[in-house]
């Protein structure tokens, strides 16, 4: 629509790929929940409850300073999908008209940003691990 109207979409492709990356991060972040649902093999009510609590806990960890302000490495701030997504996504946040609170937040968390290659290395490893576990659980339950 923007191109058809004659406007130039400045920064569109960068934000488009960041959005695709966020989608991949969300998918990978849901895999532990899928594993729990498959492992427990219970009713839909239990699945909904597990998903709800997993989502709430992941969100709380994603905005908690303890999990966000950790260096890249084998720690909860890197392994948990909420905090990892936050640490990757906010470096692409538009700071052209920053407020005092936004400037303070960016100064506080910018040393803990992770690169795209670091994020996708972590999520590929986590995806492979969880998909393998899910496949093993399905195989064990079908025997």
Quick tags:
single chain, 143 residues, mainly alpha, 7 helices, 72% helix, 0% strand
List the helices and strands and how they pair.
Elements lengths: L11 H29 L3 H20 L1 H4 L7 H4 L1 H9 L10 H10 L6 H27 L1
Helix pairs in contact: 1-2, 1-5, 1-7, 2-5
What does this 3D model show about the protein?
- This protein has 143 residues and is mostly helical.
- Helices cover 72% and strands 0% of the residues.
- It starts with 11 loop residues before the first helix and ends with a helix.
| Portion in beta strands | under 5%
Please tally the β strands and state the result.
0
Class by SSE composition:
mainly alpha
List the secondary-structure elements in sequence, H or E: HHHHHHH
Radius of gyration: 18 Å
Q: Looking at the structure, what is the overall shape?
A: globular
Distance between the ends: 53 Å
For the largest beta-sheet, the strand count, sense and barrel status come to: none
- Total DSSP helices: 7
Arithmetic mean of pLDDT = 84
Low-confidence stretches: none
Helix content: over 70%
